[in-house]
Amino acid sequence: MILDSFNNKDFYLSLNPHFAKAFDFLARPDLAELQPGKHEVDGDNIFVMVAHVDGRKPEDAELEFHRNYIDIQVCLQGVDNIGWRPLETCETISKEYCPENDIGFVKDQPDAFCSIRKGQFAIFFPVDAHAPVIADEKLHKVIVKVAVN
């Protein structure tokens, strides 16, 4: 997991061949005006999910994990307090991994929480179980899904 400011995004561009295009998308001046739902960026390599969602309590948020995509999560409104735990330490599957949706869930508790504010991003790799949308308010989020390969 990585948590940082957009001012430092260039440090991470070499981690994945699609990160430059993903961060270019996040720099769009109309990012906050995008409609909720899925937005294509680069075929199966990069797509974006825009959401306006009510925050939930930590006890209502399950850790999720992905295998084929890396999440770059951005909060445009509100503060998302995302739970995190190394996937390798998770012991209890609550929903088996679904390849069609690239998601699985575990019942384990997070080891740590990170707060994503406007101007920041968090990157969650397939080794990172994460529980997003923990907040006392409505969140406006952009999640960039970047292919691992």
Structural overview:
The chain contains one helix and twelve strands, in the order E-H-E-E-E-E-E-E-E-E-E-E-E. The protein is mostly beta strands and 149 residues long. Strands 1-10-5-12-3-2 form a six-stranded antiparallel beta sheet, with helices on one face. The longest helix has 8 residues, at 19-26.
List the helices and strands and how they pair.
Blueprint lengths: L1 E4 L13 H8 L10 E6 L3 E9 L8 E3 L3 E9 L2 E7 L6 E6 L4 E4 L5 E5 L3 E5 L3 E4 L6 E10 L2
Antiparallel strand pairs: 1-10, 2-3, 3-12, 4-8, 5-10, 5-12, 6-9, 6-11, 7-8
**What's the tally of helices?**
1
Global morphology: globular
For the record, give the distance between the C-alpha atoms at the N and C termini, rounded to a whole number. Answer: 17 Å
pLDDT averaged residue by residue: 97
Provide the gyration radius in Å. Answer: 14 Å
Largest sheet: 6 strands, antiparallel
| Secondary-structure-derived class | mainly beta
List low-pLDDT spans. Answer: none
Strand order, main sheet: write it out: 1-10-5-12-3-2
Question: What can be said about this structure in brief?
Answer:
5% of the residues lie in helices and 48% in strands.
What are the key terms here?
149 residues, mainly beta, six-stranded antiparallel beta sheet, three-stranded antiparallel beta sheet, 12 strands
